[in-house]
């Protein structure tokens, strides 16, 4: 017997195989994506998008319409899958063969088959191969069944969600090359799952049928759908082939090991983790070995490709992965940096194919080590705090959810460690309380800011720090010219942004408001004229960096955006609704303080075109009266139609003028104060509104139109949340509810004013009727059993058995009836049959003598066309024919 092929040998065989089919072998692209559609390279085809669209197939190593590569891929979306399934890695190698307008489906299918099943190649058993194709791809079906001779029962057809690449591209995009695909599966056998290939059609997820290769037939150029949503798929001038074979998956099959972690690449890593920690790879803790072995590869490779661990973009993703691994190292008892010691093994395993690993080994080790040190410090200070907390707790007690949350939320201490350490003290943690605190925190974060993290600033800290703060010119105007200063994507600065691409761009000045102070970022558009025609981009969102650089997330619709381009920027009309909600929020704040007292403090807010949300400190729900007063005060301001003005002034002056500042908010020396120029009377005083605020507001309070409060609810201890609407939205909301109420009134044949009385009256009547039904039923049961007509007692098998046939009573009441029958008749067993159910009860004494209600009812139910079972003293069944069930008693003993 020869040793199975190593992963490196399989990689080499693949490339050699396609070289023998006249393919040019090219090196892997970096894990940093070649285009701005993703952060990382996610597929072998990604570097070749230009060739699929018709660019010349000219490369450093030569010109060829057929190429083959081993591409290292990072799929952020699969990181969560890493622990969940055994077929996903965060870093994996995708083997591919590509045709740019050269060969097509027939060859792609034939060669994939030859490589997988050929004796001198992968030598997989043809009987264990299965494939999927796109719904109407009869062409592929023909090649699979006729050229290859695959049994049609080994083929499933799926829709665009499964068998199109990218998935769902026709409807959802992205724009660019796409097409139907055909996936190849290997049946790993019943040891991996007892599902069949037919089941796979339903489940689409299987540990037994492993997808090893996807053959994609990119023949379309996807463009924006029509206005009515119809997909736009233009035929590409020529047809392409793009395939991806999962190297690690094929290696698991060829080496016949149950999962990645036992193959030749991972085993040495797993063993090293066991050696460093002194914890063998077994039992529940083995998940930690796997996470570390998996994650260290992804971290090493991306860092070797130049990603630095940071708080934004790519660096953030990779830091998260490394921290997850560090946490598991800690769980295995490792208290010193140790993951970096695995790097030499990663280099040994993959360095030959990816020489950048060898070149950067030292800096990769150093980066990982220093991040581990930092994280261990976080852990240590968390542990000290936790120890202090726990030493005060009794054994067997519960650590409050809030304490566990504070550790997590404030100190970044992972909750699973809290759980473990608490266990050592014999203390458990209040999980429900923790979840609640977490949820409340997330809610608050969301209320304060639409996005919790700054991670999407294009990930380009350094580039951003070179840009001057942006001039905001959007107070009171929705349009202004600007010059493009930078185009950022995935941590890099671009010169050009072609149609169909997304990026963050900075302008020297802009009318678009950047998310801040609870107000959402503006959406809008940019238009420009260039020598080669006009261009347009959608602004999908606007945010700003802590240094005040506004970043517009744009998607170019037409033309090309370049640095230095003069554009005209427009804010979408929704901004006016946002302004109404923003001024209304200030008025709501002032009204709440007037009605509830100055204990009210703002805790967060969301000002969006669709609604406003305001969180504030207050201990109790608002009464109906209080809500009405607050709402009325705001509306009084609106009808007074006061001017809303703003000016910039030194912060001390603003405070002296009584402007409300938010607790905990940082303000500069010069602040912007927004004032409503007029007060409204309340409780003998005049209420005014004056706040420090950078947001956009209406010109006069009358512009708000109307104001209505939708809800008042509790979001965290001592924090309430009000949601409200202004303008036409408010009127529409009230109208909808009035219409519903009017409909209800008309159904009940009454006027809207009498509706509450009428409902109360009906409810009282309903309650009385229900009571009566219960009484009547009880009487009926009594009469049926007492009358003796249908109830009788007999001797059967040495037991006194009382039976009763009761009509018109509910299944739920049968048990009570059986209790009563047993008691009244003094029998050993009571059998009661209703119209659809059956209950058997046995006395204690009868059970002691061997009676078994559960077994008896099984036989009776079977005779009555039903099923049932239960305990020795009580059993229940549903039956179709109660008479037949009762007659079966004679033969049951
Ligand atoms: P799955 O449905 O299993 O997630 P996929 O449909 O996402 O796979 P493709 O995008 O078609 O996979 O990628 C081509 C091939 O790459 C797959 O057939 C598989 O062999 C491999 N592959 C995809 N994702 C991973 C991963 N996370 N880890 C290892 N191999 C993968
Ligand atoms: Mg996938």
UniProtKB/TrEMBL annotation:
<dbReference type="GO" id="GO:0008270">
    <property type="term" value="F:zinc ion binding"/>
</dbReference>
<comment type="similarity">
    <text>Belongs to the class-II aminoacyl-tRNA synthetase family.</text>
</comment>
<dbReference type="InterPro" id="IPR050058">
    <property type="entry name" value="Ala-tRNA_ligase"/>
</dbReference>
<dbReference type="Pfam" id="PF01411">
    <property type="entry name" value="tRNA-synt_2c"/>
</dbReference>
<dbReference type="InterPro" id="IPR009000">
    <property type="entry name" value="Transl_B-barrel_sf"/>
</dbReference>
<dbReference type="InterPro" id="IPR018165">
    <property type="entry name" value="Ala-tRNA-synth_IIc_core"/>
</dbReference>
<feature type="binding site">
    <location>
        <position position="586"/>
    </location>
    <ligand>
        <name>Zn(2+)</name>
    </ligand>
</feature>
<dbReference type="InterPro" id="IPR018164">
    <property type="entry name" value="Ala-tRNA-synth_IIc_N"/>
</dbReference>
<dbReference type="GO" id="GO:0000049">
    <property type="term" value="F:tRNA binding"/>
</dbReference>
<keyword id="KW-0648">Protein biosynthesis</keyword>
<dbReference type="Pfam" id="PF07973">
    <property type="entry name" value="tRNA_SAD"/>
</dbReference>
<keyword id="KW-0862">Zinc</keyword>
<keyword id="KW-0067">ATP-binding</keyword>
<feature type="domain" description="Alanyl-transfer RNA synthetases family profile">
    <location>
        <begin position="5"/>
        <end position="736"/>
    </location>
</feature>
<keyword id="KW-0820">tRNA-binding</keyword>
<protein>
    <recommendedName>
        <fullName>Alanine--tRNA ligase</fullName>
        <ecNumber>6.1.1.7</ecNumber>
    </recommendedName>
</protein>
<feature type="binding site">
    <location>
        <position position="697"/>
    </location>
    <ligand>
        <name>Zn(2+)</name>
    </ligand>
</feature>
<dbReference type="InterPro" id="IPR012947">
    <property type="entry name" value="tRNA_SAD"/>
</dbReference>
<dbReference type="InterPro" id="IPR023033">
    <property type="entry name" value="Ala_tRNA_ligase_euk/bac"/>
</dbReference>
<dbReference type="InterPro" id="IPR045864">
    <property type="entry name" value="aa-tRNA-synth_II/BPL/LPL"/>
</dbReference>
<dbReference type="GO" id="GO:0004813">
    <property type="term" value="F:alanine-tRNA ligase activity"/>
</dbReference>
<dbReference type="InterPro" id="IPR018163">
    <property type="entry name" value="Thr/Ala-tRNA-synth_IIc_edit"/>
</dbReference>
<feature type="coiled-coil region">
    <location>
        <begin position="752"/>
        <end position="779"/>
    </location>
</feature>
<keyword id="KW-0963">Cytoplasm</keyword>
<keyword id="KW-0547">Nucleotide-binding</keyword>
<dbReference type="InterPro" id="IPR018162">
    <property type="entry name" value="Ala-tRNA-ligase_IIc_anticod-bd"/>
</dbReference>
<dbReference type="GO" id="GO:0006419">
    <property type="term" value="P:alanyl-tRNA aminoacylation"/>
</dbReference>
<dbReference type="GO" id="GO:0005829">
    <property type="term" value="C:cytosol"/>
</dbReference>
<dbReference type="GO" id="GO:0005524">
    <property type="term" value="F:ATP binding"/>
</dbReference>
<keyword id="KW-0175">Coiled coil</keyword>
<dbReference type="InterPro" id="IPR003156">
    <property type="entry name" value="DHHA1_dom"/>
</dbReference>
<feature type="binding site">
    <location>
        <position position="582"/>
    </location>
    <ligand>
        <name>Zn(2+)</name>
    </ligand>
</feature>
<dbReference type="InterPro" id="IPR002318">
    <property type="entry name" value="Ala-tRNA-lgiase_IIc"/>
</dbReference>
<dbReference type="GO" id="GO:0002161">
    <property type="term" value="F:aminoacyl-tRNA deacylase activity"/>
</dbReference>
<keyword id="KW-0030">Aminoacyl-tRNA synthetase</keyword>
<keyword id="KW-0436">Ligase</keyword>
<keyword id="KW-0479">Metal-binding</keyword>
<comment type="function">
    <text>Catalyzes the attachment of alanine to tRNA(Ala) in a two-step reaction: alanine is first activated by ATP to form Ala-AMP and then transferred to the acceptor end of tRNA(Ala). Also edits incorrectly charged Ser-tRNA(Ala) and Gly-tRNA(Ala) via its editing domain.</text>
</comment>
<feature type="binding site">
    <location>
        <position position="693"/>
    </location>
    <ligand>
        <name>Zn(2+)</name>
    </ligand>
</feature>
<keyword id="KW-0694">RNA-binding</keyword>
<dbReference type="Pfam" id="PF02272">
    <property type="entry name" value="DHHA1"/>
</dbReference>
């Amino acid at each position: 017997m020869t040793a199975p092929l190593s992963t490196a040998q399989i990689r080499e065989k693949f490339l050699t195989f396609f070289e023998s089919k006249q393919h040019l072998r090219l090196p892997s692209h970096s894990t940093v994506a070649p285009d701005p559609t993703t952060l990382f390279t996610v597929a072998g085809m990604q570097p070749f998008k230009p060739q699929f669209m018709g660019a010349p197939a000219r490369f450093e190593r030569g010109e060829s319409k057929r190429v083959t590569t081993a591409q290292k891929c990072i799929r952020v979306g699969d990181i969560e899958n890493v622990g969940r399934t055994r077929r996903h890695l965060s870093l994996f190698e995708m083997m591919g063969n590509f045709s740019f307008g050269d060969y097509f489906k027939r060859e792609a299918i034939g060669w994939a088959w030859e490589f997988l099943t050929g004796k001198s190649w992968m030598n997989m058993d043809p009987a264990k191969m299965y494939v999927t194709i796109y719904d109407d791809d009869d062409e592929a079906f023909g090649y699979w069944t006729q050229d290859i001779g695959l049994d049609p029962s080994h083929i499933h057809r799926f829709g665009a969600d499964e068998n199109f690449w990218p998935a769902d591209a026709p409807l959802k995009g992205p724009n660019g090359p796409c097409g139907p695909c055909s996936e190849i599966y290997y049946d790993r056998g019943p040891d991996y799952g007892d599902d069949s290939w037919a089941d796979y059609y339903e489940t689409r997820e299987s540990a037994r049928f492993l997808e090893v290769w996807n053959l994609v037939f990119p023949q379309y150029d996807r463009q924006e759908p029509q206005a009515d949503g119809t997909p736009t798929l233009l035929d590409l001038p020529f047809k392409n082939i793009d395939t991806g074979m999962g190297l690690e998956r094929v290696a698991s099959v060829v080496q016949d090991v149950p999962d990645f972690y036992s193959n030749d690449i991972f085993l040495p890593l797993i063993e090293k983790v066991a050696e460093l920690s002194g914890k063998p790879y077994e039992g529940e803790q083995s998940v930690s070995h796997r996470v570390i072995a998996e994650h260290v590869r992804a971290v090493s490779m991306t860092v070797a490709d130049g990603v630095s661990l940071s708080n934004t973009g790519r660096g953030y993703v990779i830091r998260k992965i490394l921290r997850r691994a560090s946490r598991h190292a800690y769980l295995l008892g490792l208290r010193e940096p140790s993951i970096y010691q695995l790097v030499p093994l990663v280099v040994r395993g993959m360095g030959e194919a990816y020489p950048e690993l060898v070149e950067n080994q030292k800096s990769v080790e150093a980066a990982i080590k220093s991040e581990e040190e930092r994280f261990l410090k976080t852990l240590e200070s968390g542990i000290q705090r936790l120890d202090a907390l726990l030493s005060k707790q009794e054994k067997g007690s519960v650590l409050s959810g809030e304490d566990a949350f504070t550790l997590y939320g404030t100190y970044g201490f992972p909750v699973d460690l809290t759980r473990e350490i608490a266990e050592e003290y014999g203390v458990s943690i209040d999980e429900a309380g923790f979840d609640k605190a977490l949820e409340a925190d997330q809610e608050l974060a969301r209320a304060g800011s639409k996005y919790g993290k700054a991670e999407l600033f294009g990930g380009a800290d350094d580039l951003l720090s070179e840009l001057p703060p942006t001039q905001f010119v959007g107070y009171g105007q929705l349009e202004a010219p600007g010059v493009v200063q930078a185009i950022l994507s995935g941590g890099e600065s671009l010169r050009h942004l072609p149609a169909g691409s997304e990026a963050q761009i900075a302008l020297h000045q802009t009318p678009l408001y950047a998310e801040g102070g609870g107000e959402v970022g503006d959406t809008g558009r940019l238009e420009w004229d260039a020598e080669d025609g006009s261009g347009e981009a959608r602004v999908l969102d606007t945010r700003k960096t802590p240094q005040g650089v506004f970043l517009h997330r744009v998607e170019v619709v037409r033309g090309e955006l370049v640095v230095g381009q003069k554009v005209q920027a427009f804010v979408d009309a929704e901004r006016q609704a946002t302004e109404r909600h923003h001024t209304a929020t200030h008025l709501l704040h002032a009204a709440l303080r007037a009605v509830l007292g100055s204990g009210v403090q703002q805790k967060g807010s969301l000002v969006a075109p669709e609604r406003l949300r305001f969180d504030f400190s207050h201990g109790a729900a608002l009464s109906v009266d209080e809500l009405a007063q607050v709402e009325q005060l705001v509306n009084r301001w609106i009808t007074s139609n006061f001017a809303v003005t703003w000016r910039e002034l030194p912060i001390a002056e603003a405070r002296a003028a009584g402007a409300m500042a938010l607790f905990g908010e940082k303000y500069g020396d010069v602040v912007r104060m927004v004032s409503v120029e007029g007060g409204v009377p309340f409780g003998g005083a005049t209420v005014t509104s004056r706040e420090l605020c950078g947001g956009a507001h209406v010109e006069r309070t009358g512009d708000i139109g109307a104001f209505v409060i939708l809800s008042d609810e509790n979001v965290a201890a001592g924090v309430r949340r009000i949601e409200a609407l202004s303008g036409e939205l408010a009127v529409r909301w009230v109208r909808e509810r009035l219409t519903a109420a009017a409909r209800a009134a008309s159904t009940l044949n009454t006027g809207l004013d009498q509706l509450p009385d009428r409902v109360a009256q009906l409810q009282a009547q309903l309650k009385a009727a229900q009571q009566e039904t219960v009484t009547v039923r009880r009487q009926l049961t009594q009469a049926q059993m007492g009358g003796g007509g249908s109830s009788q007692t007999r001797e059967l098998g040495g037991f006194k058995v009382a039976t009763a046939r009761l009509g018109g009573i509910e299944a739920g009441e049968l048990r009570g009836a059986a209790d009563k029958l047993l008691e009244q008749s003094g029998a050993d067993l009571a059998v009661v049959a209703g119209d659809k159910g059956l209950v058997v009860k046995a006395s204690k004494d009868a059970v002691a003598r061997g009676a078994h209600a559960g077994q008896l009812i099984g036989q009776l139910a079977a005779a009555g066309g039903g099923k049932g079972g239960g305990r020795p003293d009580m059993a229940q069944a549903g039956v179709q024919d109660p008479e037949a069930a009762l007659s079966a008693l004679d033969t049951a003993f």
